[in-house]
UniProtKB/TrEMBL annotation:
InterPro entries associated with the record: 6-PGluconate_DH-like_C_sf (IPR008927), 6PGD_dom2 (IPR013328), Mannitol_DH (IPR000669), Mannitol_DH/Oxidoreductase (IPR050988), Mannitol_DH_C (IPR013118), Mannitol_DH_N (IPR013131), NAD(P)-bd_dom_sf (IPR036291)
Annotated protein name in UniProt: Mannitol dehydrogenase family protein
Source lineage: Bacteria, Pseudomonadati, Pseudomonadota, Alphaproteobacteria, Rhodobacterales
The Mannitol dehydrogenase N-terminal domain, residue ranges: 32-280
Keywords assigned: Oxidoreductase
Keyword Oxidoreductase appears in the UniProt entry: yes
Provenance organism: Pseudosulfitobacter koreensis
Domain Mannitol dehydrogenase C-terminal: 290-475
């Protein structure tokens, strides 16, 4: 192997020939996109699509400026700036590993309590898209009603301090105010999170927050800005010692590499008020049927992740591929998907729910991807409400089976009690962990205590079929164990 090389602009030409590097002049790139939330997914997905265009010699005026509104991201900012905002992507294909250095990001803004630098950058007319990956639960949506949570303390703060907001959405509004006052058109707001109608939800949050302090500005944003919906898909594990070692094994000294599966999908509504890159030339799909793609992915892949990750945590199965090797978990997953989820999912061009299930089954089983059950189970309070409960409601309305979905909720409740069946502790893994754990402990003897969480279930506890199935499964899990419940359902 060639000498281990630090990841820097000046050292790109010294990297091993096996590592693909930018062929474009990064110093000549100019910004067009601000992306808030520089996690692994963004760098393996949206940044890669743009990098691919740049490799083709186009979109050089669309480079990404990274941003964050969380001080916890400061160490990652330091790591990326120290390596000129370059990222090594390591593709984990069962047939072999390959590495590529992505250079589409050219800066990372200071992280400030008042978001002044972020606001100033977004107010620059060169910025035509502001994109976000801030997690499914980061949009201040009431999980039961789907409406804007105006009373959240963050929203109340930004209402009272519109020029010094603490949230990404408040910062977007402050920048849009400056653009309007300067006679500059708005940018497009682009959510890249796993939410059904993510663009519509982003519009709801931005416009509703603006209306709290400046109704005229809210009207201007609503009438002039655009918020395209999109479906995003790529399995990207967290970076740890194994991923750092993988980068070094490729001859690259990268402090923040990203591993990912050998699959990507991006379906985008073509609604950009200030222009956009030609992402379709890099494999993305522009479509007016985004909602159908979203529904298939969220209800089958994202919900499927929750089905197996909660069971994996309870049974001390550490990885998603390990869950797919576990007969009880895999059988549960397959039956719920076929019998209870797929009937509520429409086909999209080129793929049926049945063929999509085969695809995600193979992707989950990819042993080259060390994706942990813990990572996938994170923030169940957002993911169950967004990924599983909509299908459960559809099943109750249609009179179709919901027994496996009720078992999924019982497994989540058991996981939130905070111990595995082998006696080890499950560390807090949700922004609302204390509330969830208290309900889970009470539900051990009274399953209805879990369903009484109105902020999660709303009126679902009033549906006798669901409440009875949940009660039966949770009692069985506590009495006989999770595997017995999984086996009973799959049989």
């Amino acid at each position: 192997m060639d000498e281990l090389m630090p990841l820097r602009n000046a050292k790109l030409g010294c990297l091993p020939d096996s590592v693909s590097v930018p062929v474009y002049d990064r110093k000549a790139l100019t910004p067009g996109i601000v992306h808030i939330g520089l996690g692994n997914f963004h760098r393996a997905h949206q940044a890669w699509y743009l990098h691919r265009l740049m490799q083709y010699g186009i979109a050089h005026d669309w480079a990404i400026i990274g941003a964050s509104v969380r001080q916890a991201d400061a160490p990652q900012r330091d790591r990326l700036l120290a390596q000129d905002c370059l990222t090594t992507l390591i593709e984990l294909d069962p047939s072999g590993i390959s590495a590529e250095v992505v250079g589409s990001m050219i800066g990372y803004l200071p992280i400030e309590d008042d978001n002044a630098a972020l606001i100033a950058q977004m107010a620059d007319p060169a910025i035509r898209i502001v994109a976000l990956t801030v997690t499914e639960g980061g949009y201040y949506v009431d999980p039961v009603t789907g409406g804007f949570d105006a009373m959240h303390p963050d929203m109340q703060h930004d209402k009272a301090h519109p020029d010094t907001p603490r949230t990404a959405f408040g910062a977007m509004i402050a920048a849009l105010r400056q653009r309007r006052d300067a006679g500059i058109g708005p940018f497009a707001g682009q959510s890249c999170d796993n939410l059904q109608g993510n663009g519509a939800i982003l519009r709801q949050t931005v416009v509703s927050l603006a209306r709290l302090s400046d109704p005229a500005l809210a009207d201007w944003i609503d009438q002039n800005a655009s918020f395209p919906n999109a479906m995003v898909d790529c399995i990207v594990p967290a970076t740890g010692p194994a991923e750092l070692a993988l980068a070094r094994a490729q001859g690259v000294d990268d402090a923040a590499p990203v591993a990912h599966e050998n699959y990507r999908q991006w379906v985008i509504e073509d609604d950009f008020c200030a222009g956009r890159p030609d992402w379709d030339q890099a494999g993305a799909t522009f479509s007016n049927a985004v909602h159908r793609y979203e529904a298939m992915k969220i209800r089958m892949l994202n919900a499927g992740h929750q089905l197996i990750a909660n069971a994996g945590e309870i049974l001390s199965v550490p990885t998603i591929s390990g869950c797919m090797e576990h007969a009880g978990i895999a059988g549960f997953f397959a039956r719920v998907e076929r019998a209870e989820i797929a009937p509520h999912v429409d086909a999209v061009p080129g793929i049926t729910p049945e063929s999509y299930l085969a695809l995600i089954t193979a992707r989950f089983a990819n042993t080259a991807i060390v994706d942990t059950s813990r990572r996938v189970a994170f923030d169940g309070s957002s993911r169950h409400t967004g990924f599983i409960l909509p299908t459960l409601r559809d099943g109750l309305a249609a009179g179709t089976p919901i027994d496996g979905l009720a078992l999924a909720e019982a497994l989540w409740a058991r996981m939130c009690e905070g111990t595995r069946e082998d006696g080890t502790e499950i560390a807090p893994n949700d922004p609302h962990w204390d509330t969830l754990q208290a309900a889970a402990k009470a539900a051990r003897d009274n399953p209805g205590a879990w369903l009484s969480q109105q902020q999660v279930y709303g009126d679902l506890a009033d549906h006798p079929a669901f409440a009875a199935a949940f009660d039966r499964w949770l009692r069985m899990i506590w009495q006989d164990g999770a595997e017995a419940a999984l086996t009973a359902y799959a049989a």
